[in-house]
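All the exercises in this workshop are built on plain-text protein records. A record pairs a protein's sequence with a compact description of its fold. The structure tokens are whole numbers drawn from a learned vocabulary of backbone shapes. Once this layout is familiar, the rest of the handout is easier to follow. An example says more than a description, so a record of this kind follows.
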Amino acid sequence: MASTSDIRKGLCIKYNSDIFKIVEFLHVKPGKGGAFVRTKLKSVTTGKVIDNTFNAGHKIDEVRVLTQKFQFLYKNGDTFNFMNVEDYDQITLPENLLDNVHLMKEGEVVTVLINEEDSLPLSVDMPPNVTLKVTESEPGVKGNTANNPTKVAIVETGARINVPLFINEGDSIKVDTEKGIYLERIK
């Protein structure tokens, strides 16, 4: 049994007879009253996201997980196929276990959280950022540089990302996988 002081991003817990992954959390100590932890939980079975508040010191039932590296092979309808990079076993996962699938390209190595009790995959964590090639982008308008303007670019995975005006077709860009935003151009 863990307590609210052990809460961290990515922790899997049992709550309301389901397994949830902590997406966000915030420890709050108001001037009056007791401390509490405000969390955003994502169900690993349904993909539904809920907000919940735990009082400080509340006991939570932590799920023991194993992390393994898998390579994304291909998408087949609503399912995604991955291969374990160590023993080459392949698994198929539904889309609801994945976050930001529009940023995942074939060959990308991801971390899969696996429940130790029943060996079932719980969720897939993308790397913090990915490098993607711009396949479509309108040319920037010369002289339109006031207020840090951006334009929409389509990357190789089909995702639409706001980028600065100097980004052109064929450029490689680094994208934050958590927020889905442009970070920098790769030379």
About this structure: The mean pLDDT is 85. The CA atoms of residues 133 and 156 lie 6 Å apart. The chain has three domains: 2-62, 65-125, 129-186. The domain at 65-125 is CATH 2.40.50.140 (OB fold (Dihydrolipoamide Acetyltransferase, E2P)).
